[in-house]
Amino acid sequence: MGISAELATFCQNWHTKAEGYSQDDVAGAFDRFFTLYVVFNRLYAEATFRFARSHNINLGNRFPDARAATDYVIQFCGADVLTAGWEGEPNTVAAYRLIAQHIRDRNFALKLDLVTGERRRQADDELLAALESQSRNERAKAGLEVLYAIRCNMFHGHKGFEPIQLQLLQPALTLLESTICLVRRALENQD
Known about the structure:
This protein is mostly helical. The chain has eight helices and no strands.
């Protein structure tokens, strides 16, 4: 089946735009993450729609964004493909581990209360356990949940626009770019 020329052009245009933002300053890192997330969003939406058509899941009248960005990406690509892809890239391995270390050290909270923005320590501890699990499925879901949590924190105003955010955003950008490549490859290789 591959991907359409329109989708390929869309992804290329947004990826080129993202490359124009530096990830060495907080404004550039925020803009780069937002821009790359547009690419990821479009790809996981395509994967979700394909999955729905071939597996008869009912999406209802509202797109299930959180499930699409996590569960459906895993079901479409496979946890083994995602984790092997991440583990096959030294920079992504280092980024994944650094994100886990930040959660362990409580430098950053990823799971926040939607209304108050307060830390949900137990949820972060569960995320950390999944990031370090022996199960590829748990590690894949946790990696995708990290990206989705950062996206939500940014989009909903709970991520401060401060230089310290670079310590989390830089490895998150590495993980996001790797994930984009893996989802795109799965879409391109689908029969």
